[in-house]
Design goal:
Elements (H helix, E strand, L loop, with lengths): L2 H6 L24 H12 L11 H4 L2 E6 L5 E5 L12 H10 L7 E5 L12 H6 L4
Parallel strand pairs: 2-3
Antiparallel strand pairs: 1-2
Length: 133
């Protein structure tokens, strides 16, 4: 069941008293950590820098995606410049996007400045989109 369904209360049996409910163990299939990588990257490609019409993944702002066996994700990211006006909210946008991926557990996003971002971090698609190729 996805998070929205749990939040909305689907699957609860309010009409049946707690002491008469039958609880069954349900086997939940856990995705391999590397199977989560592509859906996480797809989610990161949905996050855009408001000042640049390219997603943050192809801009080269994501330096590291570490995925534990439990599905917890640690991300190191940077910004195009330390004085970026969205510096406070960009890590939260990244965290929310990655947390929305089915199978992902806890998400930690760390903003790093070393090495500094430069245009060579960008994918060819991003460079093409910005008219740099």
């Amino acid at each position: 069941m996805n998070r929205l369904a749990r939040f909305a209360g689907f699957g609860r049996h309010a009409a049946v008293p707690d002491d008469t409910r039958h609880h069954e163990d349900v086997a939940v299939e856990r995705m391999d950590a590397e199977e989560l990588r592509e859906p996480i990257i797809a989610a990161l490609r949905e996050v855009h820098d408001p000042e640049i019409p390219v997603n943050i993944y192809d801009l080269g702002l994501i330096y590291k995606i570490a995925i534990s066996d439990r599905g917890d994700v640690n991300i190191d990211m940077t910004l195009t410049a330390p004085a970026c006006p969205v510096a406070g909210m960009m890590p939260l946008m990244v965290k929310d996007a990655v947390a929305s991926v089915e199978g992902v557990g806890a998400v930690e996003v760390e903003l790093v400045w070393d090495p500094p971002w430069n245009q060579s971090n960008m994918s060819d698609e991003a460079k093409l989109q910005l008219g740099m190729l």
